[in-house]
Amino acid sequence: MRHTSLLLAATLGAALVAGTAQARDYSEIRLGVDLPYEPFMYRQADGELTGFEIELGEAVCAYLEATCTWVEQDWDGIIPGLLARNYDAIMSSMSINEERAQQVLFSDPYYTTPSVWVTALDREIDIDDRASLEGLVVGVQRATLQDNYVTELYGDVVEVRRYTGGSEVVTDMRAGRLD
């Protein structure tokens, strides 16, 4: 299961730990996001951001009487971007794990999403039969829990291809470049 948490005030918390906290006006909260992940966050035809996490972030900002500013960041740089203070929090379906918890502060989880294996409709792949996986190509988004999972448990039998974003995985899956 994947527990997703808002990293609200993580930058402030990191600054306090480092002893470098300075007064800051939080009437604007900058939220780091990795697009697109429908239905959680994506751009509408008119360019406006929308989706579950965008709406949730806007609700948090409204509650805090602040304005949300959305900062786009590729996933593999999302924690470094927070630590560099490019934004105040991450609102981008980040799963809580021990490694990340050593770097940033998490809120309580706001939803849990299971990970899934996806293949073409005309394929049958049994992930429990390691021998049948030999030579298959599996796509994952780089620096995710799924990347770690596939690499650790199946990296010796499948070719793992890492992508910057989830949409690239979908594109290669649809094009038949992934099993």
Automatic annotation (TrEMBL):
Q: Which Pfam families match?
A: SBP_bac_3
Which residue spans traverse the membrane?
Answer: none
Q: Which InterPro entries match?
A: SBP_3_CS, Solute-binding_3/MltF_N
Q: Where in the cell is it found?
A: Cell envelope
- Where this protein primarily resides, as one coarse class? other
Its lineage opens with: Bacteria, Pseudomonadati, Pseudomonadota, Gammaproteobacteria, Oceanospirillales
Signal peptide range equals 1-23
The protein's UniProt keywords, in alphabetical order, are: Signal
Q: What is this protein called?
A: Histidine-binding periplasmic protein
Q: Which family does it belong to?
A: Belongs to the bacterial solute-binding protein 3 family.
